[in-house]
Amino acid sequence: MQKGVASAETGIKIDTFDTTISDEKALAYDEHGGVCGFAHKFAPSITIQITGELSSTTEGLPVSVFGTALTINNKNNAKLTDGSDEGDSVGDAYAGIDGTGGFYLEDITFSESRDGFRSISLSAISYPGVT
What we know:
Layout (H helix, E strand, L loop, with lengths): L11 E12 L2 E4 L5 E5 L4 E11 L38 E2 L2 E2 L5 E8 L7 E8 L5
Antiparallel strand pairs: 1-4, 2-3, 4-8, 5-6, 7-8
């Protein structure tokens, strides 16, 4: 069992690191309007949310740029499945969703307070295969 975040990130002292895997479904309906099936894996995504204190304002995550793939050291922490994404390596997917896409900045927030350290919160999203 692991305690804490597995790896350090450049420019931030991590407080929390969250990964969300989404696989939107399209429902199929029968002639009575009831759900009789669904389709999925046509628009999956993986979102990472990172919060923590700034340790640099000149490198790493605090200087992320929209439209440029981010370097996230902990991005593989949630890869726990065993190749059900058609891959053949243990831990190569997120809940069966291919993990080959790059992570791109969605939003970033900088916070300051009278009695605390300057902090950052950012989220990045990956669409499988988009690099």
